[in-house]
């Protein structure tokens, strides 16, 4: 997945933002509360040239022996690193600067280092979960509960608005159902076709599906555009945010997000093709790593996170992205 260039919260240091150019971090960091400039940061001034090495004395007298690495004053002690990391030096894990070197991101892009976490293989042990904009990802269980709440609300709206059309559709199919039930009770085996539904059945089915899709769109898209939350998401404590920045989705992005999940409703009569597409979309976060995006999230470039207003603040000493 390609991440759009922009300013993102550093997953290693949650107190600063860095600029991601599409391949790696560049430029100097800024405080996380500061307003980032438009576009990439200005180029950093080049480091001053190192002073020339002292010349050896011309006489035959031996000069002072150079200090061996790791023995001079101010040299960091070597030894085992943190628990779970490699040994042999004071900088055992990715993202930590070596002595005399800038922090990763100051200049050249670092492969495998992205704004939403580490690439597998770049972190000792299990890589941490990404935290888009410093927020933990929403679990699949919370997303499922929120979606079921939303479906219940949309179903109740359909019962009010679509009830009369559904009753008319049942009346059109009543002769077909009655004849089928008579044959089942009589255990009658025959090749005679069942009576066809009324002429208005097809038109009523189209009207019902159009109204159902319109009610779903009217319920979800405006709420997602303004705050990234439907009523179900608000009750569960999750919300959708763009990958580019922690800001409202906007109507266009919210509509693209809904289209992937909601428009297949119109394909339900086509051998349940619409239902199969919606089921695939609903299950897709289980197989997407590491961002847990559904197909409609990928279409709109969004991600579902826990709402910071419903989540208790965690200890800053906990490494960002770690999970219990």
TrEMBL record:
Keyword Membrane: yes
Localization, UniProt: Cell membrane
Residue spans of biased composition, Pro residues class: 37-55
Domain RDD, residue spans: 138-300
Keywords in alphabetical order: Cell membrane, Membrane, Transmembrane, Transmembrane helix
Region (Disordered): 23-130, 301-324
Chain segments annotated as transmembrane: 148-167, 201-219, 261-280
Biased composition (Low complexity): 94-117
Name this polypeptide is given: RDD family protein
């Amino acid at each position: 997945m390609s991440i759009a260039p922009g300013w993102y919260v550093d997953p290693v240091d949650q107190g600063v933002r860095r600029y991601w150019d599409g391949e790696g971090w560049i430029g100097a960091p800024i405080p996380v509360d500061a307003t980032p400039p438009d576009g990439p940061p200005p180029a950093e001034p080049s480091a001053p040239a190192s002073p020339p090495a002292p010349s050896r004395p011309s006489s035959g007298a031996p000069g002072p022996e150079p200090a061996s690495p790791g023995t001079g004053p101010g040299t960091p002690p070597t030894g085992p690193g943190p628990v779970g990391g490699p040994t042999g030096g004071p900088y055992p894990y990715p993202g930590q600067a070596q002595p005399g070197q800038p922090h990763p991101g100051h200049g050249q892009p670092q492969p495998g280092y992205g704004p939403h976490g580490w690439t597998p293989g770049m972190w000792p042990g299990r890589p941490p979960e990404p935290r888009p904009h410093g927020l933990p990802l929403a679990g699949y269980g919370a997303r499922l509960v929120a979606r079921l709440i939303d479906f219940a609300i949309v179903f109740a709206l359909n019962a009010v608005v679509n009830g009369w059309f559904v009753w008319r559709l049942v009346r059109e199919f009543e002769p077909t159902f009655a004849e089928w039930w008579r044959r089942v009770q009589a255990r009658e085996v025959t090749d005679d076709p069942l009576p066809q539904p009324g002429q208005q059945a097809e038109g009523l089915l189209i009207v019902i599906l159009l109204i159902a899709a319109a009610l779903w769109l009217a319920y979800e898209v405006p709420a997602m555009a303004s705050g990234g939350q439907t009523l179900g998401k608000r009750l569960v404590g999750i919300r959708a945010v763009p990958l580019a920045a922690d800001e409202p989705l906007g109507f266009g992005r919210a509509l693209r997000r809904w289209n992937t999940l909601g428009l297949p409703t119109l394909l339900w009569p086509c051998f349940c093709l619409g239902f199969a597409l919606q089921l695939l979309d609903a299950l897709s976060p289980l197989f997407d790593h590491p961002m847990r995006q559904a197909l409609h999230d990928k279409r709109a470039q969004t991600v579902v996170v826990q709402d910071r207003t419903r989540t208790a603040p965690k200890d800053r000493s906990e490494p960002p992205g770690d999970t219990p």
